[in-house]
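User: Quick one: structure for sequence A, then sequence B.

Assistant: Sequence A:
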Amino acid sequence: MPNKNSAPPIAKRIPHQLEKHGHVRVDDYYWLNNRENTEVIEYLNKENEYYQQATAHTKAFQKSLFEEMKARIKEDDESVPYFYNGYYYITRFEKGKDYPIHSRKKESLHAKEEILFDCNEMAKGHTYFNLAGLSISEDNVWASFGTDTVSRRQYTIQIKNLMTGEILPVKLENTTGGATWASDNQTLFYSRKDEQTLRADKIYKHKLGTSATDDTLVYFEKDETFDVSVYKSKSKKYLIINSSSTLTTEYQTVLSATPDAKFTIFQKRIRGLEYSMSHFGDHFYIVTNKDKATNFKLMKTLENKTSKENWVDVIPHREDVLLEDIDIFKEFLVVSERADGLNKIRIMPWDGEGEYYLPFGSETYMAYTTTNLDFDTQILRYSYQSLATPSSVIDFNMKTQEKTILKEHEVLGGTFDKNNYVEERVWATAKDGTKVPISLIYSKGLKKEGLNPTLLYAYGSYGVTMDCHFSSVRLSLLDRGFIFAIAHIRGGEDLGRPWYESGKLLKKKNTFTDFIDCSKFLISEKYTSPRHLYAEGGSAGGLLMGAIVNISPELYHGVIAQVPFVDVVTTMLDETIPLTTGEYDEWGNPNAKKYYEYMLSYSPYDNVVAQDYPNIYISTGLHDSQVQYWEPAKWVAKLRILKTDNNQLYLDTNMEAGHGGASGRFEAIKEIAKEYSFLLDLEGIKK
């Protein structure tokens, strides 16, 4: 148990009045919203010291957990090569090194390896490093790449000559990292961010051999609720600018061969109209919600008639099937669908003969198409995994229906056998009668007597689906008697688009009550009990954690909240904070009274009261651009004053990282070892 000699820090209270719609809130910890203030840094350091002291007795266990988890991972590992434009591309890791090495081989896997980027070398001297947005010109000579050394997702793009190895002196600052080359191999398009809000709002054009100051602004997105990006169609014929908000999209195109021509609008934005498009032959294929197609449908239109009145149905809308995406090949259309909460991959020959679905047996799996850059091929590459089955990459011949497993994720140590675990999908009934699926995994032979430690995980926002992925790290819990469960709650898109719509805006509370009802189901069915039930969520899932501990704290023995979004009202009223304005369609705009009042009724920080709370471990990053560090810091400060129990409350701030946590391959496992040791310590499991 925690070191009784260490007392938690108490943040000073400086009342700050916040008034909106004639309603006044007093925020005693508003002052923490300034990372330049030395007192703020001092407070965060004190919280870190308290956490370290209080958990000192678990340090050796944390280390052994880390070594145990690391030992299951193949250190000298590499990705399955994919072939693109004459080269095989490979990402690999070397033993003892934290970062990937990106390489390629010309025309054959037996050819000499060209190392494009060794991130281990590039990361030297940085506490955080991430390389993103690798883009290679059509002549295979130039590579653009983005690097972030702060973890604020502000990337600097540079350009490398792959023939000489020279990195050009030009630096394109404050970008998303993503860029795309025109067919002339001289022109690079990229998106740049607003310095303050970090919204990607501008598309620029850079010409090789010129200064960054000479770059041309191609497009500026004035609407603060939209982000912009730029990419090239798989057919390589078009450069495409995408403007998107939560509910609305708009595309612009230009021929890749004429990058200095003017982009033309594909279909102008109409609020509520969402679409994405792929080019094939003389048509564009469009996945869209047009005509009230809530679960989306597939349409097509001629290249020269792109406005919506010209679109015609290819796959009509279905009430019970969500159309998620398509992959276009010369002879086949591949459709990614979701029915009953499960992934389906549908193969449709263009000649209309003999369409079929890939067969999947389990109910706790995920399957998705992966890197399919080659247009003229019969081979579809997809990935499959389940809670108990390691991830595999499969090449599937769509003509012969033969499949080749190229790689199955290897679990080292010689003790893992997927047959030692039970996978289940069960359905809880929410308070409004809705059936909510829960996916579970646990060791064989486990008895349902209400005594099993159980970790229930969920996210439940932005229409993000929580699929059943395999984790070798998770075995450290399963092999110590834990049940791991995922609650597929509303607010995600697990059961189609209406599932998302019924867990956002003025229906957001369904997300929280679904999770609570899933918890009650696991307790009533004797999987576990409140003494052994734990909850975990991050970011918007951290908001979920903050809400459930206010509403039903008695159901949980412990809660893990990673980078939690808990100060909803204040953040959504501050338009200078990164990402805020783009979030209005998800949470509502509190400048409107009805949204203000609804948010205020569930915002975790605003609803902390004098009551017993579970044991809580909260992690954050000082440089987080998605959820600012001060949200969890304020939440902890308020909990310390108001909670009426003696349970553990820890704030663990990474003073060097942001939203994604540590950047090294194994550094991230150290974070998980901290979380697992918190859970295992509460269960009295010492080794």
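Sequence B:
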Amino acid sequence: MTTLETGRVVGAGIDRVDAPLKVTGSAHYPNDFAVPGMLHAALIGSTVAAGRIRSIDATEALAAPGVVDVITHLTAPKLERGPMTLLGGSPPAPMQDDRILHYGQHIGIVVADSAEQARHAARLVRVEYDTEKPVLDVDDPRAQIVENPWGLDTQRGDVAAGFARADVVVEGTYTTPDNTNNPLGLMATIASWHGDALTVHDSTQWPHNVRTTLAMVFQVPESGVRVLAPFVGGGFGAGLRVWSHVILTALAAREVKHPVKLVLTRPQMFTSVGHRPNSVQQIKIGATRDGDLVAIEHYGMSSVAMEDDDYEPVSFGSAVAYACPNVLTQDRQARLNIPCPGSMRAPAEGQGNFALECAIDEAAYAIGMDPLEFRLRNYAEEHPLLGLPWSSKALRECYSEGAERFGWSRRNPEVGSMREGRWLVGYGMAGVSYPFYQVPCQARASLRRDGSAYVRSAATDIGTGTYTVMTQLAAELLGLDVGRVRFDLGDSDMPYSPQAGGSGLTGALANAVHTACRRLVQEFLDVVAGDDLSPLRGALLDDVTVTDGRIHRVGAPEQGESYAEILARHGLEELSADGRSTPPQSEEIGMATSGAFGAKFVEVRIDPELGLLRVARVVSAIDGGRILNEKTATSQIIGGTVGGISQAMFEETATDAGTGRIANATFGDYLMPVNADVPDMEVIFCGGPDRATAVGTKGVGEVGLVGVAAAIGNAVHHATGRRLRSLPFTIDQLLL
């Protein structure tokens, strides 16, 4: 029982255990809850992007029907800023002065008997401003530049010397726009105070972070704050931070001494819960005629809010993707009058991989080598920075199996040579090396006298399948049928869990569950250690295995007994055990901890007269370590692929250059793919369990998106000869 062995439950593509609740409408999301005496809130947003509030008049709003209170910076109490977190600093505390830092900034909150009354009254608040000219572009000379924000800039070898010996050098500037997280469920918060105790229902991907932040902001004991999020209507990173609307809801509830509920509007989602920041990237690649990479230079500039931080090292992936002896990567941020950026599915990698993999493709064409062969020739057998072997890496298999399934060998290498009727046909590909991320996590497992198990941790399931895969894992480790295991999450009173983000939750939580279940079996062995009636008397953990609700000696199923029998004979109702996971450290294990790897293959069709671009099919070959549930993992890759198509062809948050107002902050204006835009997709999983942990998983929540935009761009070049370096790819770029 040292490591997990694949058995009858883990790996099986079983249906989601929470599906019946969702399809019957019994799954309660934050917006579904109501508590006695609850009032409703609406936010007032700034209509300028920079300046100060000269005056704010709530007289008319306070007189409106049903209005209980209007809170602004003039009446709000002093609030502390939230803590430093695993993802960086907390956003600034809201409504602490009269300064305006971005359009849509929360400058007031209205509390009323109904949501409609609150929204109506919010429009009655009169605000006058002393405006300033906002800084809205990374090229604005007034923008403050933050150098090496995360200390991740890298340099190895002699880049100048590398370029000097290169036979071919390609370089270009790649740009990606702001994208906005748009989960289907509008983010909602309900806050209820009982003295210094606070209960919150919230659309969060990290209940413990909300708990810690609210305790610090309001200077109350953390033990008295409880955050509930059993179901979250998507997130894509929008629920990773404690945004100001959450704090303001708790503030309003404390001020009016009633529970308060706030649901963001769709336009407010564009200014309140983060977004993928835009980027400008300069990349330069040198190679020999033989196909050896000799130098890579990658500079990234991304936007950040005036008084906030955001983790977006867009160039860093270029430091570890290929076996190149001379590499320089540098990142900078420009402070702008924009809403706080935040994580959006595959943060940084989604932008950086686009530039790197398009440039790699261009270099392959420049030396006349197949893009797949060029990538394989420069394959990094060990971690380029650490010089250690990977804990697992099946990228070669991803390339070979993906190419075979896609039919890459049928590709005519000549640009513009493939057609189908009036449509130009292009084949493109991209490699993906997604970073490892894992942090400590805790879980608790219990076995009851009826033979059922209850396992829990304060994680969230944002649609990724956490409920299901943790149920499967616990069932496998305890030798139970899936139907005899209940896994619970979404409650900050449960054992600590990190965020559902960074493709790190499954690994961290799975290893905590693994430890908890092992310790639980040990608890049973401890109970019968001196029991003359037990065939397990004196057995050690490595002497036994578990099947069909029984512990028995390895190779001797008859020498064992059920959990229920042990509990009943010793007069116990249940036994419990806690488990903790600690992320492996590369230096300690002698291996470079590995994230997911992948290869993306795309076929596109282009109408040269109309500039129409269609993605015909996508094959994703993924090394995700041990796959706990092939059905849910496949679903994650498909969903990520759709997100990649959206990034490549549709999404762009348009900010008015003069005012800072987001001009397309509705589903009617912000373009996303619909069913007709989504092609045939195939997913292949390659490789096996990762060696760094007992369970051997690697996250697959984000690797599905990375590489899709680059593969589409490379396919466009194969079809047309054009190198498109600016996302999204639009008709004007494609008219030939």
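The two ends are 62 Å apart (CA to CA). The chain has 17 helices and 30 strands.

User: Thanks, that's what I needed.
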